[in-house]
Amino acid sequence: MVNLPIERKISPMSNMKTVRAFVSLMKKEKYDIVHVHTPVAALLARVAAKIAGQKNVIYTAHGFYFHDDMSPKVYKMFYEIEKHAARRMTDWLLLQSIEDYQLAINDRFCPKDRTIHLSNGVDIWSKFNREVVKAPNLRKEIGIAEEDIVFTFIGRLVREKGVFELLHAFNRLRKENPNVKLVLIGGLLESERDQESFSELQNLLASPGVLHLGFRNDTPELLSISDAFVLPSHREGLPRSIIEAMGMNLPIIASNIRGCREEVFPNQNGYLFEKENVEELYTSIKTLADDEDMRKTFSIESRKIAEELFDEQKVLAKQIELFNTLTKEVGLYEKTV
Hints:
The N and C termini lie close together (9 Å). The model is unreliable at 330-337 (pLDDT under 50). Helix content is 44%, strand content 13%. It is α/β, with parallel strands linked by helices. The strands form two sheets. A six-stranded parallel β-sheet has the order 7-6-5-8-9-10, sandwiched between helices. It has twelve helices and ten strands.
């Protein structure tokens, strides 16, 4: 493992240092495959690969950097950067989102035969599997009664994750139904503690029925004691948290955005609501809280969808097949980055 620092934003001086470091490393090691992830790091590594004369450059796009919340001018700028980098500096383009895949094909980001819909996946057999994961005393340990209906959220507690809308919707439901609980898994990064919204968030987290657990390493166990999963995010790639929840047989409530709508099928395994719409979110969680039979039906369908579309082994198999083709060997080649 070679650890090279990379800024997660456009910072010319720092970015140039990263490119130089990558060029030096690539010229020294002469890799057979360069596999890049995340928008900024992927762009810098591909620039370096071009300079270093690397072959077989693969970019897995977890979600293109441009998105609908950007102004038209900013959107166009990042769209052109992504498109140019895909056309000029990428040999194989792997897309997790089917919407990103279709856009890349339609707009000719990369040759069609070198563009692959990869999807996303988790370990739904030994890790995120309700038949395997058991936590008989966990509800009691964190203050949840047997009769409580538990909604769970996983993510950073920041505005773009929709946590404010979720807390407002939940607080309204809690006044009507004292048996609902909201479990929040995740924290607030130090860099975000100075934001004006922090004090508002702190007040909302103190509301009755809200259990803020912070960062945890027992996510499967916490999902196993949940009744439904909620992700009201404003933008996503193809969220793993929803896949994890589906693997654990949970109904899903999510915002109707790219990524989420590839995982949540309305009235089949959950509900989609328009992002930032507190009224629609409230209606969705209330409907699930009031209808146990619906929760059971959705939970069964969630597991079926996870097995069919989001099995980690199937996702890995696509990548390994590509690596084998490029290296002409059976098994992963040891000199990849």
